[in-house]
Amino acid sequence: MSIRDQILLWNSASLHITDIRRRRLLPHEQLEYGAPSNLFLILVNGNARLETEESNFHSQDAPVIHVGKGGRLRIGSATSGFEFLIILYKAKFPQQLPGEISQPQHAIKQFYSSYCVPAGMEASYRSMANEMDNLWGQDHPMYRLEVKRQFYAFVQLLLSEMERREEAGGGPEEGIVTAAVRHMQAHYREPWTLSSLAGRLGTSTRQLQRGFKARFGHSPLEHLIGIRMEQAKILLEKSEYPISKIAEAIGYADSYYFSRLFKKYNGMSPTTYRQCRMQNGLERSTACRISPSQPSHSIIVPFSENGYHHKESATQAFRALMALTLMCTAGIAHAEGKINVPHVRGTLVLEEKPQRIAVLDYQYVDQLLALGIRPVGSVTCKVTAAGLPPELAAPLSGMVRLGTKEMPDLQALKELKPDVILCTAFQDFCYEELSAIAPTIMLDRNEDWRQTLLRLGILFGRHWQALRALDDYNAKLDQLRHKLAAHGTAQTVALIRPRDGSIRLHSEKHRTARLLYDDLGLAAPPLARMQQGTSTMIPLEALPALRADRLFVLTDDTNREQTRLYQQSPVWKEMNAVRKGQVRHCHTALWIGYYGPLAMSRIVDEIAETLLTPI
Hints:
- The protein is an alpha/beta fold.
- It has 4 domains: 3-169, Jelly Rolls (Sandwich); 194-280, Orthogonal Bundle (Arc Repressor Mutant, subunit A), CATH 1.10.10.60; 304-471, Rossmann fold, CATH 3.40.50.1980; 489-612, Rossmann fold (3-Layer(aba) Sandwich).
- The protein has a 5-stranded antiparallel beta sheet, covered by helices on one side.
- α8 crosses α11.
């Protein structure tokens, strides 16, 4: 519906109010009504489901409903005291309609259609309708004239609010999306399907999908899952409820399904998440933990002029930093020839400093190499490692391959006879088997790499190497920040990865994207700021909505053909960043796989080369 065309029609129409009626339904009473003329139904009190020949509505999300002449209205499932007002009116149009209306016949058809006015101004609508009802009961020509004046004001408010929502959301679906989100937040425990949600809001599944894709870049059900996962995190952190009760509390009868879904969206099982938060003392000291959800870079890696990242300040800051680090790493300590190592799955006591280290999440290879430690074996990245910087590629070629992080090769690991195994929640399913092979330390893979580097530095007695790596990295980061400031051009950048027939957009919460947005202060596009998780899938057609000045595109052997096809599409070619030649293709494994000082330092170099090179 074009709101502008409707405004033009209302301006040209001759209106006559035929009646105003008030009605109250008893609980579970139903009403079927054939509209003798156009009408507006305004909710006064209570809730009910309202159905027309075109759509279904719920009064909670649609406080005003319009029904065209001859349409049928059915009201059912009313709560106690459901009360409403009906304003019946007739409209007559002149033979010559305003020339600004592009499709007059279509506009008139829309005028007589059934539609809802989204929630948001219901108090004003209700107040104006009640006032018109009171005046209508006076049965005097002057009062009837005042009713007509107020009816115009009522329609003007409806249309201005619908126009505002259309302009703000880029389409008429914006009001429906707002109502859907609000309803999801209030009723996330209820069993839902896309069709039941659309029916409750009085719209079609197609319109609902389109509205969410345009506004958030993901589907309505993905949005609901995000809300449920956030509620699950709160219950895991704040309560002692068993997993089955938490699953039930957020709307999942099957706790096994909930656990798989939670791991998919958070990278670890609910049990591991709870243990991790307990070990890290999240509620007691959020400032000491660096993570995508609680970023606090300045605590561990300060950027001030007197910070330890300057070479001359490392010695002076060492004691304070070590005290802070020990607190933040939950007490890793060397005492009486033993090493106490608190981790996600408990506390491990090592009899001596490990020499043979096996890595089951390849991001730690980067960190260990930066500390001067070469693991004896590591899982491999699913995407090709060809093209990695020499400081990563050369050592990798000499390590024993231990499968993938999703499916480690336990036999090869056992034959390797490691002194210690480093793993993450990806190996939660086989943790007991790993522990039978060698002492196993489970780390939080989403923890900021700088915090993990300090943990590993303390664990393996490489404190100074960790500090030097951070000094070098922060000096490079400071230099780039200053150059970008001197460059003076504010740029919006997006980090994307074509994948599985769609495009993964990494949000400002993603651990690598935070380098762009948090550390360097670059602007994130609106879609990247809206996401609740670290990334979301968007269709190719939604790319122009990013409105990004620069695109960093993650490319590898798994998506090279898809990326090539996308680059040939009109949608891709019409993007502002593409037309201006401001697209950089990046090595997927480097940017989101090997998460440590070696890879991150190289990424800073690539960002500098991209943003500081003249077009």
